Amino acid sequence: MREDFKSGFAAIIGRPNVGKSTLMNRLIGQKIAITSRKPQTTRNKIQTVYTCPEGQIVFLDTPGMHKAKNRLGEYMLGAVRQSVKDADVILWLVEPTSYIGEGERSIAALLTRVNLPVILVINKVDTIKKEELPAFINAYKDLHDFAQIVPVSALRGQNTDEVIRCIFKYLPYGPMFYDEDTVTDQPQRQIVAEIIREKALRTLDEEIPHGIAVTIEKMHQRERQDIVDIEATIICEKESHKGIIIGKQGSMLKKIGSSARYDIEKMLEEKVNLRIWVKVRKDWRDSDVQMKNFGYNRKEI
């Protein structure tokens, strides 16, 4: 390994819906984290890996900072705090605005307790006029002593190379954590479950997505065939929600399944036979046992 090789962890934090997963997917050049317009899309800490001749960055994509309303919410906040502790550099992602709300102030308070370089990334600059940007930078710069401030559009890929350059500035020298062809530490089954959850988030009514989880019951390759059989279950909290997820004559479930299958086939580069069921588990978001069963184990944060 070269002596000038850098490696370390960069935690991406921010309020819900500021574009953290979109930025991470853009930086590593591949879709790993799911995205939707609904808050709390990301629930776990997701690690992805960017490797180039200069070094290796392990990105920690975190759930949006919010007030916890149940045990799942507490789990998500725990995942954010742990990511901040594990990081060498923090990317704080915000939207272009001159109004600094309570959510941003609570993140600033969290960062004052951490002795790490913080790069402020102002996302969605494609939605504003160029001359408005200085006022937005001024509004944020008194909140914290930032190492750098970088305006970007994660969606359009504007100025995202600058984010990579800034991170490397603050990473320590050291060996690789992962092989250079590794893009994520997430098992395939987990990515498949998240893809199905993303499609449900994008398809369903506002109030339902917060109460759903997805588990993969079976995933195996057919012998001597390029087909993967996958059986999945969408978990919801109410019988009425189950009916909405299935839809009239199964129409909603079919819609979720076909759009999920398209993305899963792209990822696996194989044909997929996907079957999805829906089950009710009342108030699972307040049950440690059920949360653990669905992949949200507080002890693993």
UniProtKB/TrEMBL annotation:
Pfam families: KH_2, MMR_HSR1. The gene is era. This is GTPase Era. PANTHER family: GTPASE ERA, GTPASE ERA, MITOCHONDRIAL. GO terms for biological process: ribosomal small subunit assembly. Residues 123-126 are annotated as: G4. Gene3D superfamilies: 3.30.300.20, P-loop containing nucleotide triphosphate hydrolases. Residues 6-173 form the Era-type G domain. An essential GTPase that binds both GDP and GTP, with rapid nucleotide exchange. Plays a role in 16S rRNA processing and 30S ribosomal subunit biogenesis and possibly also in cell cycle regulation and energy metabolism. Residues 61-64 are annotated as: G3. GO terms for cellular component: cytosol; plasma membrane. GO terms for molecular function: GTP binding; GTPase activity; ribosomal small subunit binding; small ribosomal subunit rRNA binding. CDD domains: Era, KH-II_Era. PROSITE patterns: G_ERA, KH_TYPE_2. It is a peripheral membrane protein. Belongs to the TRAFAC class TrmE-Era-EngA-EngB-Septin-like GTPase superfamily. Era GTPase family. GTP binds at residues 14-21, 61-65, 123-126.
